């Protein structure tokens, strides 16, 4: 009889431990990862330029023809607005992308990388380089691919924190038309 009681208690303990393990596993599979909020970073950068008296320059090259001009804050905001809709941290975008983190000793940065789970997403890649000591953004690289009618457009955007950004577009149609547009906006990229 004593043996039956011990056996019953042992089975009861094993069953309760097994149930706890299942509950723990279910709990640990819920995704609580927060992606880096790029829109907030870009808005802070735009506000900084708006509040300061930086000279702002645009260097534009379209199909080999180059031009450079000074631009006002409104033109700056218009170009910078392109970056505001390239954020994957919103709840509806979060499930469509995967985040990886890499510590790059050569650049003294942590690189956050976001890639789509499907090739059909317009934003194909985002790399955010954070300073390894301060965790402040150093650079952001974004690559998008879209189709407008029959035109394929690849856009490479990069932002150098507190200094400058670039927007480069490569367009191509099935009939063979090709267009290359390079835009470089600089507001505080002086040598120190």
Describe this structure in words.
It contains four helices and nine strands, in the order H-H-E-E-H-H-E-E-E-E-E-E-E. With 192 residues, it is α+β, with helices and mostly antiparallel strands. It has one domain (36-186). The protein has a nine-stranded antiparallel β-sheet, with helices on one face. Mean pLDDT is 84; it is low at 1-32.
How many domains make up the coordinates? 1
Structural class by secondary-structure content: alpha+beta
Spatial strand order of the main sheet: 2-1-9-8-7-6-5-4-3
Give the end-to-end Cα distance, rounded to a whole number of Å: 86 Å
Low-confidence stretches: 1-32
Number of strands: 9
Gyration radius (Cα, Å) is 25 Å
Number of helices: 4
Q: Sheet bearing the most strands, described?
A: 9 strands, antiparallel
* Mean pLDDT value: 84
Provide the succession of SSEs.
HHEEHHEEEEEEE
Helix content bin: 25-40%
Q: What fraction of the residues are assigned to beta strands by DSSP?
A: 35-45%
């Amino acid at each position: 009889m004593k043996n039956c009681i011990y056996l019953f208690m042992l089975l009861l303990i094993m069953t309760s431990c097994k149930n706890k393990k299942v509950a723990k596993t279910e709990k640990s599979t819920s995704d609580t990862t927060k992606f880096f909020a790029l829109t907030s970073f870009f808005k802070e950068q735009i506000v900084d330029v708006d509040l300061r008296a930086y000279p702002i320059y645009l260097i534009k090259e379209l199909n080999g023809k180059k031009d450079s001009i000074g631009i006002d804050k409104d033109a700056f905001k218009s170009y910078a607005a392109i970056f505001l809709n390239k954020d994957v941290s919103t709840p509806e975008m979060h499930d469509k992308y995967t985040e990886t983190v890499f510590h790059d000793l050569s650049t003294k940065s942590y690189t956050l990388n976001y890639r789509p789970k499907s090739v059909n997403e317009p934003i194909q890649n985002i790399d955010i380089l954070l300073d390894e000591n301060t965790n402040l953004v150093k650079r952001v690289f974004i690559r998008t691919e879209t189709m407008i009618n029959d035109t394929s457009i690849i856009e490479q955007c990069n932002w150098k924190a507190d200094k400058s950004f670039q927007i480069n577009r490569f367009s191509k149609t099935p009939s063979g038309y090709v267009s290359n547009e390079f835009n470089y906006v600089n507001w505080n990229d002086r040598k120190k």
